[in-house]
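We emphasize that the prediction below concerns an isolated chain of 88 residues; any contacts that depend on oligomerization or on bound cofactors are therefore not represented. The input was used exactly as deposited, without trimming of termini.
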Amino acid sequence: MTHWRNNSLIHRFDNLAEEADASTAFQPITDQLNALEMELLQSLQPDQQMLLREWQDQGTALEYMKKEWVYIKGVQDGIKILSQLYSE
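Result of the prediction step, given as a token string:
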């Protein structure tokens, strides 16, 4: 896949992720998670809070990379299928 397609796919994924973040459909669970996170953080010492934040950041980064990979693979598969359909 060419470089511009990869950039386009990544850009599309970023836009969809932002749209999902802004969606009100996820707001109740987001609010619950935020409340639980605040309760957890308040129960920890400052060094433990920093460690928890680092762990959360790394987990988030890993999940984002996995979702991006799956999205790109799905688009690549779709392109292959369309290419085969139009070549016949």
